[in-house]
Task: inverse folding
C-alpha cells in the first residue's frame, strides 16, 4: 500500500514537473496551474496529458533513470508534442495512435539528447519536440486517415464544453477588454507557450509565473519588449508571420533562459538579452522562411539554437568570467542568484583541488604572486616562504651559514595527495649570499596531483628528500627539508603550481584551500585564496573530536528530542550527485551539507522552518573543525531562507542589481581545547539580519560536543528558547 | 674635572705571559640599563635589593621556543610550569602567549584557576593530591597525571562518587642513559609497572586515558636523552592502541631544558656547552615523527619547560654593603642579597655585573650575602672589578625558582618589578613587612605581656 502510494506520488510529481519545465519551474502550485490551463482547450489538454503519461510509462518500462524521469526531463517535450499535435489534427483512432507513438519517439529523443548534451552542461530544451512534430507533420500528409484541421480556430466550442457558459463568458469578457495591443499581445504570447492564444490563460500564467519567480516575470517583459522594439526598428516585418507563438516561446523563453535561468541573473545577463533576443528574432524570420517552404512551423527552434549556442560558447571560456553560468540548478532564478552569491566560496570546493601550505607552523610569504624579486612573467604565480622571529629577522646571529636561518632544515610537507614524478636531490646548498643560476631551481620535487595539475617545491636541502620518484605521497607527509640550493641566496622554500611536469615549467595561479593568515596583527581565516606577500601563514589543524562529531556518513542516524517538539529522527543519505544530506522523516525536511575535513557547512535546507533540523541548520551553518585558534567564522545565509513577504518580493525584483537584505552567520569554538579530542567542546554561533543599514540579531545558538558526538544544541530566538538533546545510534 | 674614584690599593701576584702596557684587562661591561630602564632609577624607586623581570624577554624566549617546535612538528602545546615562577603577572604573560598551566599542588592549581586558566587546560602533576583537589580537577576536566599506584586507587575510589570520567595520564620514569636516573616520580617503564598502571586504568573503565607523561630530569645537558624518552613513550602509546584499544592523544615530555646559567663546578660556561632549545626540538620532534604514528594520528606534544623560558628574563639588583679582607688575604664583598632570596646560588655560578663604570682592575673575591649565617655565600670565587660600599650590581638569569623557593629568613623578601614591552615598570609583588609576616602569628594570652 505504502509502496503503491509512493510510486503514485513519484508519478504525480513527474507529471507535474513535465508541466513546470515549460516555464523552467518545479513549483507544484505553478505546475498544477499550467496543467489546469491546458484544459481550457480540453482536447489539447487531454492530448498533452496522454502524451505525458505515455512518455513516463514508456521511460519507466524501459528502465531509464528514475531520478531523471521524476524530474520531468524526459516527458516535457512529449507534453509540448501532445499540445502542439492536437492543435493541427482531427481526433480519431489514427490521431491517438500517432499521439502515443509520437510521445514515445519524443521521449526517446529526449533521453538521447539529454545524455549527449547534458554531459557538456547544455540543456536539450525542446529539440525533441521539434523533431518529432516535424516528422509527424510531414508523414501525416501521406496518411489518408489523418484529417488536417485548423481546430484551434474553434477553441470557443471546446472551452464551452470544458467550463460551461461561465468560463466561456469570462474568457470572452476578458477578450473584450480594451487592452493596449502590446499588453494583450503580451498575454497572448504568454499563453502561446502552451499553444493557446487567449488573454485569460495568459493572465493566469503570468500571475503564476510572478508568484513563482519575480525575475522570470521581469524577463518575459524584457524579452517581449525587445522583440517588439526590434521589430519596429526593422521597419515592421510582416507581422502576420511573427505570431504570438514566436513571440512567447522564442523571445520570452530566450529572455528567461539566458537572462536568469541558465545564467546567474545580473545586470550583465539582462543586458545580454538585448543581443540574444534579436538573434532569436533573426532566426525566427530566417529559419521560418526555410521551414514554411516545407509546410512546417519553425516552433521553438530559434529559442533552442540561441540558448544552446550561447551556453556552449560560454562553456568554452578558459576562466569563468563575470557572466556566470548556473552551477547548481534550483529551478528558480532568485534561488539560483541568492545561492550563487552565498556560495561563491562554497563552490570553490567543486572547482579546485584542496591544497594545503607545504610547511609546518607559521611561515611568512617573503615573495608572493607577481613578486618583484624573481616572480616575474611566466613564472610570476609562485610563493616563497621563510620563517621570521619577532625582530622580523630570518636568522639568528651570526647569520653567515645556512644553519643560522630559522627555515633551514625545517620540514617541507606534501601540499596535496599525488605521485612524485621528479626528484632532484644532489645540488649543494649555497653559501649565504651566493646564487647558483646554473641549476636555477636547486633540489626540487614535482608532484602530480591530477592531469595538468602539478606542484613544485624547490631550493630544498641536499640529500634530505625523503621520497623517491613514482612514489605516492599523502597530503601533510614530510617529503623534504627546506634548503638553500639553486637560485637562493638565503634559505627559503619556493612553491608553485604548474600545468606541465617539467622543472622550469611556467606557473599557474591556484588557491590554497584553507589557512590562517596573520597580517598587521590581525588573524584571518582564509578560504581558497592565494597567500599575500608579507603575511604570516599557517595550516589549519583539525580537532579530531569536532571532526568526528560532524563526520556524518551515509546511514548515520541520530534521534533529536526537545520539549515542545516532536522527536525527530535524522538519517544521513547521499544522492546520485554525491551530495550528502540529513533527512528528517517526520517532517520531510532535507539539509544538504559538505564536510571537507576542515570545514563543515550546510549548502541548502528544504522543508518547514519549525523543525529541529532547521534549527540545527542555523546552528551549524558553518563550523571550522579545528579548535587551535580562537577565530570567528563568518558567513551569510542565502536570502532564499528569508520569509516570503513584501520586502522579499521587492528584493527579488531588484536582486540582479542590488541586494539590500543581509543574513549573517558567525560561529566560534567557545571552549578552545587545542588539539585534544576529549572533554567537551562548545560552539557558539549567532544569526543576524541586515536590512539596509540596520542590523538586528535573529538568534543565538550553542552546540555541545562530548565524546566525539554532538550531545545537544540549543537556540534562543526572541520569543522562545529551544534545547534539543541528540542521541546518535551508531 | 670629576673627582677620581678611590680604590684601595692591592698587590697582585705576577701572572706569567706578556705584560700589557694597559695593565690587567677585564671582559666585564657595566650593565646600567635593563630594557632601557636604568638600574639606578630602579633601585631608587623600589629599593635594594629588587627583582626585575623583563616582559619582553619572556615573550621573546617563549616565541622562540614555540617557533623551534612548531616549525618541526604540527601539534605543540606549552604548559607553564607554575613552580618555576608563580607570581601571577608572570604566569599571565605566559597564558597570554597561549601557554596552558602545569601545577604540582592544590595551591598551584587554585592559583592557575584564579589566573583565569580554564580547568581543561590545567595539567595536574605531582605526588600529592588530596581527595578534594582531585574532585575539583575532575569536575574541571583537568588533565590529571598519576604518580603512583596509591594515587591510582585513590582516583578509582573517587570516580565512584563523581559522575564524570576524569581525563588522566600516567607519569613514566625510565632509563634514558643519563645520570642520575629519576625514578622517584611516576611508574617505571623498564620493570613493567608503567604498563601495569595503564592496563589498570583502562580496565577500571572509570577513567579516560588521554596521555603519557615523563620528566626525565632537570638541567639536561643532552638532547638525545629526550629522543630515548620519546621512543619509550611511543612504544607504550602503540601498545595502548593495539592491546588496550585506547589511543594516546598526547605525549607530555615534561621539562628539564637548561638555561644559560653555568652550573657550579662546570669547567666551561653554559652558553658554550648547553644544547639550545632548537637542539631539543630537533631531537624530540624527529623522534616522534619517526616513531611510526600516522600523520592524522600524531599525538599532541606537550612541553612543561619552565627554567629555559623564564631564567633569562629575571634580574636581581643589589647593593654592596661592605668590603673585607679575609684572613687568607682573599677579598670579600658583602652584598645586600644572599641565599635567602637568591636560592639558585646553591646551584649556579651566577653572572654578576656591576651597574656603574669601573676601572680596569679586577680581583678574585668571595661574594657574601647579608645573613648572619655561615651558609650565606653567593659566589665562592668571582673575578670582579673592585666594588665600594653603595655600588650597585646586577645578577643575571634569576627568573627561575628564586621567586618561588626564596626564604623569609632573617631578612624579608623584596619587591618584584616587571618592565613591560613599552619600558614602563610595574610593581608585581610588594616587599614584605613586619605586619605581613606576623599576620598569621597567634599570641597565647599568657604570653601577651612581657616585662624585662
Result:
Amino acid at each position: 500500500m505504502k509502496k503503491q502510494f509512493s510510486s503514485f506520488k513519484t508519478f504525480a510529481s513527474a507529471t507535474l514537473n513535465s508541466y513546470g519545465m515549460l516555464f523552467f519551474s518545479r513549483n507544484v502550485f505553478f505546475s498544477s496551474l499550467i496543467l489546469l490551463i491546458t484544459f481550457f482547450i480540453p482536447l489539447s489538454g487531454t492530448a498533452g496529458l496522454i502524451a505525458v503519461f505515455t512518455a513516463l510509462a514508456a521511460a519507466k518500462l524501459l528502465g531509464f533513470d528514475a531520478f531523471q524521469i521524476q524530474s520531468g526531463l524526459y516527458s516535457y517535450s512529449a507534453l509540448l508534442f501532445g499540445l502542439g499535435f492536437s492543435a493541427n489534427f482531427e481526433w480519431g483512432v489514427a490521431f491517438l495512435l500517432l499521439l502515443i507513438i509520437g510521445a514515445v519517439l519524443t521521449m526517446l529523443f529526449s533521453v538521447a539528447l539529454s545524455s549527449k548534451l547534458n554531459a557538456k552542461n547544455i540543456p536539450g530544451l525542446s529539440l525533441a519536440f521539434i523533431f518529432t512534430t516535424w516528422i509527424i507533420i510531414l508523414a501525416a500528409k501521406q496518411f489518408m486517415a489523418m484529417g488536417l484541421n485548423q481546430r484551434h480556430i474553434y477553441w470557443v466550442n471546446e472551452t464551452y464544453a470544458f467550463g460551461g457558459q461561465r468560463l466561456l463568458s469570462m474568457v470572452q469578457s476578458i477578450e473584450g477588454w480594451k487592452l493596449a495591443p502590446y499588453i494583450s499581445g503580451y498575454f497572448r504570447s504568454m499563453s502561446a507557450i502552451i499553444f493557446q492564444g487567449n488573454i485569460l490563460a495568459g493572465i493566469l500564467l503570468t500571475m503564476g509565473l510572478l508568484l513563482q519567480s519575480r525575475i522570470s516575470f521581469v524577463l518575459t517583459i524584457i524579452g517581449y519588449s525587445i522583440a517588439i522594439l526590434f521589430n519596429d526598428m526593422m521597419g515592421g516585418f510582416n507581422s502576420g508571420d511573427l505570431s504570438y507563438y514566436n513571440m512567447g516561446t522564442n523571445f520570452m523563453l530566450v529572455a528567461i533562459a539566458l537572462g536568469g535561468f541558465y545564467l546567474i541573473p545580473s545586470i550583465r545577463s539582462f543586458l545580454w538579452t538585448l543581443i540574444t533576443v534579436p538573434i532569436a528574432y533573426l532566426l525566427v524570420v530566417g529559419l521560418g522562411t526555410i521551414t514554411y517552404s516545407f509546410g512546417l512551423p519553425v516552433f521553438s527552434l530559434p529559442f533552442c539554437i540561441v540558448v544552446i549556442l550561447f551556453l556552449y560558447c560560454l562553456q568554452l571560456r578558459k576562466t569563468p568570467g563575470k557572466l556566470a553560468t548556473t552551477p547548481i540548478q534550483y529551478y528558480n532564478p532568485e534561488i539560483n542568484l541568492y545561492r550563487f552569491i552565498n556560495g561563491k566560496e562554497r563552490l570553490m570546493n567543486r572547482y579546485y583541488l584542496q591544497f594545503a601550505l607545504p610547511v609546518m607552523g607559521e611561515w611568512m610569504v617573503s615573495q608572493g604572486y607577481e613578486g618583484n624579486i624573481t616572480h616575474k612573467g611566466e613564472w610570476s604565480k609562485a610563493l616563497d616562504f621563510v620563517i621570521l622571529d619577532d625582530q622580523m629577522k630570518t636568522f639568528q646571529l651570526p647569520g653567515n651559514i645556512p644553519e643560522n636561518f630559522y627555515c633551514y632544515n625545517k620540514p617541507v610537507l606534501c601540499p596535496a595527495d599525488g605521485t612524485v614524478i621528479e626528484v632532484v636531490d644532489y645540488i649543494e646548498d649555497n653559501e649565504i649570499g651566493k646564487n647558483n643560476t646554473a641549476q636555477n631551481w636547486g633540489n626540487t620535487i614535482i608532484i602530480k596531483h591530477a592531469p595538468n595539475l602539478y606542484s613544485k617545491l624547490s631550493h630544498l636541502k641536499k640529500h634530505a628528500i625523503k621520497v623517491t620518484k613514482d612514489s605516492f605521497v599523502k597530503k601533510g607527509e614530510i617529503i623534504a627539508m627546506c634548503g638553500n640550493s639553486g637560485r637562493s641566496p638565503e634559505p627559503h622554500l619556493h612553491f608553485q603550481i604548474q600545468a606541465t611536469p617539467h622543472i622550469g615549467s611556467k606557473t599557474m595561479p591556484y588557491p590554497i584551500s584553507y589557512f590562517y593568515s596573520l597580517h598587521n596583527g590581525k588573524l584571518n581565516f582564509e578560504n581558497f585564496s592565494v597567500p599575500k606577500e608579507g603575511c604570516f601563514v599557517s595550516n589549519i589543524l583539525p580537532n579530531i573530536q569536532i571532526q568526528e562529531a560532524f563526520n556524518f556518513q551515509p546511514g548515520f542516524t541520530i534521534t533529536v528530542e526537545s520539549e515542545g517538539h516532536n522527536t525527530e529522527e535524522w538519517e544521513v543519505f547521499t544522492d546520485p550527485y554525491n551530495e550528502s544530506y540529513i533527512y528528517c522523516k517526520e517532517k520531510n525536511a532535507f539539509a544538504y551539507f559538505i564536510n571537507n575535513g576542515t570545514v563543515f557547512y550546510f549548502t541548502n535546507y528544504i522543508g518547514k522552518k519549525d523543525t529541529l533540523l532547521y534549527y540545527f541548520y542555523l546552528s551549524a551553518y558553518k563550523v571550522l573543525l579545528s579548535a587551535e585558534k580562537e577565530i570567528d567564522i563568518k558567513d551569510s545565509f542565502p536570502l532564499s531562507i528569508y520569509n516570503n513577504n513584501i520586502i522579499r518580493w521587492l528584493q527579488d525584483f531588484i536582486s540582479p542589481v542590488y541586494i539590500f537584505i543581509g543574513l549573517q552567520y558567525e560561529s566560534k569554538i567557545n571552549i578552545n581545547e587545542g588539539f585534544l579530542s576529549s572533554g567537551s567542546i562548545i560552539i557558539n554561533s549567532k544569526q543576524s539580519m541586515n536590512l539596509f543599514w540596520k542590523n538586528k540579531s535573529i538568534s543565538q545558538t550553542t552546540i555541545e560536543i562530548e565524546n566525539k558526538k554532538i550531545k545537544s544544541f540549543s537556540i534562543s530566538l526572541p520569543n522562545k528558547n529551544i534545547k534539543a538533546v541528540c542521541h546518535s545510534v551508531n | 674635572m670629576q673627582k677620581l674614584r678611590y680604590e684601595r690599593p692591592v698587590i697582585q701576584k705576577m701572572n706569567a705571559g706578556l705584560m700589557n702596557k694597559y695593565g690587567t684587562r677585564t671582559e666585564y661591561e657595566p650593565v646600567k640599563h635593563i630594557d632601557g630602564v636604568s638600574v639606578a632609577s630602579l633601585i631608587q624607586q623600589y629599593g635594594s635589593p629588587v627583582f626585575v623581570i623583563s616582559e619582553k624577554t619572556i615573550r621573546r624566549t617563549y616565541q622562540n621556543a614555540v617557533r623551534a617546535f612548531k616549525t618541526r612538528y604540527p601539534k605543540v602545546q606549552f604548559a607553564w610550569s607554575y613552580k618555576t615562577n608563580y607570581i601571577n603577572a608572570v604566569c599571565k604573560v605566559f597564558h597570554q602567549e597561549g601557554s596552558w598551566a602545569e601545577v604540582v599542588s592544590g595551591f598551584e592549581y587554585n592559583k592557575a584557576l584564579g589566573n583565569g586558566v580554564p580547568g581543561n587546560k590545567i595539567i595536574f602533576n605531582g605526588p600529592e593530591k588530596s581527595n578534594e583537589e582531585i574532585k575539583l580537577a575532575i569536575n574541571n576536566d583537568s588533565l590529571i597525571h598519576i604518580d603512583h599506584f596509591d594515587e591510582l586507587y585513590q582516583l578509582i575510589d573517587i570516580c565512584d562518587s563523581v559522575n564524570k570520567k576524569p581525563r588522566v595520564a600516567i607519569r613514566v620514569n625510565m632509563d634514558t642513559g643519563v645520570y642520575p636516573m629519576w625514578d622517584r616520580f611516576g611508574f617505571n617503564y623498564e620493570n613493567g609497572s608503567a604498563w601495569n598502571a595503564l592496563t589498570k586504568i583502562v580496565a577500571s573503565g572509570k577513567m579516560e586515558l588521554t596521555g603519557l607523561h615523563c620528566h626525565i630530569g632537570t638541567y639536561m645537558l643532552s638532547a638525545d636523552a629526550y629522543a630515548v624518552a620519546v621512543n619509550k613513550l611511543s612504544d607504550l602509546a602503540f601498545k595502548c592502541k593495539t592491546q588496550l584499544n585506547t589511543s594516546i592523544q598526547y605525549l607530555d615530555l615534561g621539562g628539564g631544558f637548561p638555561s644559560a646559567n653555568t652550573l657550579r663546578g662546570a669547567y666551561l660556561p653554559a652558553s658554550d656547552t648547553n644544547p639550545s632549545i632548537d637542539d631539543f626540538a630537533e631531537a624530540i620532534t624527529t623522534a616522534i615523527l619517526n616513531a611510526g604514528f600516522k600523520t592524522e594520528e600524531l599525538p599532541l606534544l606537550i612541553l612543561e619547560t619552565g627554567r629555559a623560558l623564564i631564567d633569562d628574563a629575571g634580574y636581581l639588583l643589589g647593593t654592596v654593603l661592605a668590603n673585607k679582607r679575609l684572613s687568607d688575604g682573599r677579598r670579600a664583598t658583602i652584598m645586600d642579597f644572599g641565599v635567602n632570596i637568591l636560592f639558585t646560588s646553591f646551584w649556579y655560578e651566577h653572572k654578576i655585573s656591576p651597574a656603574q663604570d669601573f676601572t680596569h682592575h679586577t680581583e678574585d673575591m668571595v661574594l657574601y650575602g647579608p645573613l648572619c649565617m655561615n651558609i650565606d655565600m653567593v659566589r665562592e670565587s668571582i673575578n670582579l672589578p673592585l666594588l665600594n660600599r653603595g655600588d650597585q650590581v646586577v645578577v643575571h638569569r634569576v627568573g627561575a625558582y628564586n621567586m618561588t623557593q626564596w626564604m623569609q629568613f632573617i631578612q624579608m623578601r623584596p619587591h618584584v618589578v616587571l618592565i613591560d614591552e613599552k619600558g614602563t615598570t610595574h610593581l608585581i609583588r610588594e616587599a614584605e613587612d613586619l605586619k605581613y609576616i606576623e599576620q598569621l602569628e597567634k599570641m597565647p594570652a599568657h604570653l601577651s605581656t612581657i616585662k624585662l
About this structure: The interface with chain A takes residues 59-60, 63-64, 67, 70-75, 77, 100, 118, 120-121, 141, 167, 208, 210, 249-250, 289, 295-296, 300 of chain B (CB under 8 Å).
